[in-house]
């Protein structure tokens, strides 16, 4: 199938993504699963599921200049192979990243494990987070592998995570029964409490005062103490 977006590679565009956020930059690369946008400083890897609209920016309000040579992006430089979301995630393991999942603020840290439909994300603020892949809006690698918040090696370093994780997000959630958990950290509608039961795509959740039921499909991140 023809990739229509490939026809506007190396063109300055505006991209509207989920949450009505507008990103501006040069469309560096595209595939059937995602596009790569370069804003003059950073690369944005954006899955199609979160792209609502792409428009050519004829006015170039940010004054971007198209590079005279092809700019090589950090997380995928494959030749004669399809750029996939899985390959980008795999290539990013151990690289410091800014990942946009939540509406209020991005996550900063690195990916330590990749499972079937979620990742394990190590954050200097939240430590270990489980992040649903389908809710990842953008991935932005740090320039020169700088550390989040300019932390030193002693304050934040990459360490191997040897925990055994379930293959799917839903199965892993089932392993978190009776553990103190935060769902969708740093988002307005976040929930702190205990997962008491899991049945299909629904969890039973006990907060400090109430019991309620929540759809797993709307869980973006999970943090356990």
From TrEMBL:
It comes from the Bacteria. This is DUF2642 domain-containing protein. It comes from Solibacillus palustris.
